[in-house]
Amino acid sequence: MEMREYLSIRKAYNLVRQSMGAARRLTFVEFAILCRLEVLGREMKTSEIAEYQGSLRPTMTHRTKHLAELGYMRRSKGSSDRRNVVCAITDEGSAFVDEVCQLVCQALRGGSVLSRTTPQRICRYVDAMGAVACMSGELVLLGVSVSPEGSATVSELVGMLGLLQPTVSMAVSALEGEGCVARLRDGEAAVRTGGVTLTSEGAARADHLTEDINKLVVRRK
């Protein structure tokens, strides 16, 4: 998968998510679980989903319980091993996936690299993307890394990623504390108010994420 495809879909999903009521607002990783079940067309053990997303089982238990509470997923004990929980998408979950993927398609229109793709194809993209965990901080790193100027302001990152301004500001502050970004100072080349650039550590993290994203393969029918 190309980085521009990845960022385009993440931005579109973030914008769609903001437009939805709080009760139906899923994180990207939660939505990816539904897309995974929809694409595979079968039940999955919680342990399988945890392996798919590289998450700990307790974390996945929390996510699948949330999806089940919303009616998008059905959780049941495994027939051969009662310790395993088996997850299946419900009709309501499938309808939700279709609705959101259609909204993402609408958000991609207007010159985006994926402006002509279909909701079914978006579902398969999200399924693939769910295997790489990118929270707001990682998205900021990627956003700065692809900026032609080698730096970006908070407002530019908001427009690039579809995240809210407070979310981007908090992510930048956290990344600065971790030594992954540095704020441009007066007198530095290409300085812009509020601009940030990657440190060597931040660039290494961005490169690692980019490698993982470039390895993603979108399933065909």
Average pLDDT reading: 92
- Written as H for each helix and E for each strand, in order along the chain, the element string is HHEHHEEHHHEHHEEH
Strand order of the largest sheet: 1-3-2
**Total number of helical segments?**
10
Low-confidence stretches: none
User: Shape, please?
Assistant: globular
Which percent range describes the beta-strand content? 5-15%
Largest sheet: 3 strands, antiparallel
What's the alpha carbon Rg, rounded to whole Å?
18 Å
Number of strands: 6
N-C termini distance: 17 Å
Computed structural class = mainly alpha
Binned, the helix content reads: 55-70%
What does this structure look like?
Helix content is 57%, strand content 9%. With 221 residues, the chain is mostly helical. The mean pLDDT is 92.
